[in-house]
Amino acid sequence: MVMMSRKNVEQQSQPRTPRWVKAFGIAFIAIVLLVVLLMVSGHAGEHGPGQHLSGGHAAVTLTAGSTR
């Protein structure tokens, strides 16, 4: 009978996380933190339909009964 030390038994019973999973996890967390930092600091820019208008013109809003 082969006697195995406690350390060897623990290493064999616990599967290790692959390196690529750790790398993707770290990259994902870094990207999320960057996006949050940009949003909080105000450097993310204005969002919404006005951002896509050419020339920076204000949008014309039509209401019920409007002739324009």
Helix content: 40-55%
The secondary structure category is mainly alpha
Cα radius of gyration in angstroms: 28 Å
Can you summarize the main beta sheet? none
**Cα distance spanning the termini:** 92 Å
Unreliable parts: none
How many H/I helices? 2
Secondary-structure element order, as H and E?
HH
User: How much strand content do the residues show?
Assistant: under 5%
Shape: rod-shaped
The chain-level mean pLDDT equals: 77
What is the count of β-strands? 0
Would you write up a description of this structure?
This protein has 68 residues and is mainly α. 46% of the residues lie in helices and 0% in strands. It is built from two helices and no strands. The protein has helices at 6-13, 19-41. The mean pLDDT is 77.
List the helices and strands and how they pair.
Blueprint: H1 6-13, H2 19-41
Describe what is shown at a glance:
By secondary structure, the protein is an all-alpha fold. Helices cover 46% and strands 0% of the residues.
Feature tags:
mainly alpha; 46% helix; single chain; 0% strand
